[in-house]
Amino acid sequence: MHDLCEGMNFIHTTVSSFHGYLTGSKCLIDKHFILKIGEFGCETLVSLLANEHIKTAIHVPVKKLYWTAPEMLNYQMMPNRATDVYAVGVILLEILSSDYPYPDPEQECKCLLEKISSGAVTPLTIQKDENIRRLRPDLLACLEWTFHLDPNKRPTVAKLLRTLLRQEENFFPGSKRSDRLVDQIMERLNRYAAELEDRVAKQTSDLIKERAQCDTILRQILPGNIVEKLRRCEHVGAEVFDSVTIMFFDLYGFEVSIHQKRLTDLMDLLNAVESQTDSCVNDVDAFKVEAIGDNFMIVSGAPVCNGSRHVGEICKLAISLRSKLEKLLEGREMQLRMGLHSGSIAAGMVGFRKPRYCLFGDTVNTASRMMSHGLPGKTQMTGIAADLLRKSCSQFRMISRGVIKIKNKEPMETFWLLNEPSY
């Protein structure tokens, strides 16, 4: 309705002046659901067609003359703006009722034409649709005047448009002038798109959170640089590191406690030790390779080389762990036993379903022997690690334990790492 009135108002305010032969079939709906008016601008042809239809009205189906004004049916006037207004009124009623303006168009054709031409019958007088009854009084009165026998008393299309806008505000409070069907569809599409964007944003946020959680878990199992390679679908091969420091430590006395303590208490203790260990490892340049029961293996210098700092990082970690874990073990018949060694290793990811970062080489075995041949409450290191520590980190203090026998190894001199560095 809005498109129809706007289109006719445009025609009436341009050089075309009037349409002249407006019918329902001249109102076309494009793919965007916008009403467009066709076949206007040919006044001479329109006049000839109008006269031809009027002269042969008895042979023309009545429904083709629904939009013809009474003065044209009575041969009193040629097409003009007033006759256009009459046709607009008929089409508006068609849209409101979704039906022909006159019922039973095939019956009593001549009689119905006579009534239309005399003004005895108008589409509004016989229309019983509920939508018509719900119209604002001013719009209903305006429609009645569009069918007035006196063309000069009919309203202009501009007035119809203004009244129609007030009607739209009555049906749709807060609606704007552009709220036609296509605008309503576009508004729904935009609202749906906005809802979809919100849903996608929420799902993306959830996905990012899930990915962050997966990354956190993966980085607890594998080194960060390997996680990045796996994410880029790159091959993760074995690497050789010329100089790293490996530390083993366990809870001396834990195995005896298994038979004396409740298992749930021991599990709580292991969880607390694991948590404190992770916290301390995060404070230094090191990576926790694995934890099996009460045994832990930590490396510095792999999988990311850090020059000669690795031995100092491990010693710093050993002192920090001893300080924090001894508080957890207070009152229990357990003590920390630590051992470390520096040397070369091969390292890489092993397994696909349950991947692990594994270290290989004699350095691993020697570091493990330093722990197993050590004493509770002590941190033992090899002479190689001690020499490297003196060169790279002079603030740490050590004392010689002497030469001891190591299983499957030649006798070697080892050193105790003191708990306090000499800054």
CATH H level of the largest domain: which superfamily?
Nucleotide cyclase, GGDEF domain
- Terminal Cα span: 90 Å
Q: Tell me the CATH topology of the largest domain.
A: Alpha-Beta Plaits
Task: Provide the gyration radius in Å.
Answer: 47 Å
User: Number of DSSP helices?
Assistant: 16
Average pLDDT: 82
Topology pattern, helix = H, strand = E: HEEHHHHHHHHHHEHHEEHEEHEHEE
Percent helix among the residues? 40-55%
Question: Approximately how much beta-strand content do the residues carry?
Answer: 15-25%
* Biggest sheet descriptor: 8 strands, mixed
Count of extended strands: 10
Instruction: Tell me the number of structural domains.
Output: 3
- Structural class, by secondary structure, is alpha+beta
Shape summary: rod-shaped
Low-pLDDT windows of residues: none
Which class of the largest domain in CATH terms? Answer: Alpha Beta
CATH architecture descriptor name of the largest domain: 2-Layer Sandwich
Report on this model:
- This protein has helices at residues 2-12, 43-55, 70-73, 81-97, 109-118, 123-126, 130-133, 137-146, 157-171, 181-221, 224-231, 254-258, 263-282, 310-328, 362-372, 383-392; strands at residues 27-29, 35-37, 239-252, 287-292, 295-300, 335-350, 356-360, 379-382, 398-404, 412-417.
- It has three domains: 2-179, Orthogonal Bundle (Transferase(Phosphotransferase), domain 1); 181-221; 238-417, 2-Layer Sandwich (Alpha-Beta Plaits), CATH 3.30.70.1230.
- The model has no long low-confidence stretch (mean pLDDT 82).
- Helix 1 packs antiparallel against helix 9.
- The longest helix is centred in the middle third of the chain and has 41 residues, at 181-221.
- The strands form two sheets. Strands 3, 4, 5, 6, 7, 8, 9 and 10 form an eight-stranded mixed sheet that branches. A two-stranded antiparallel ribbon has the order 1-2.
- With 423 residues, it is an alpha+beta fold.
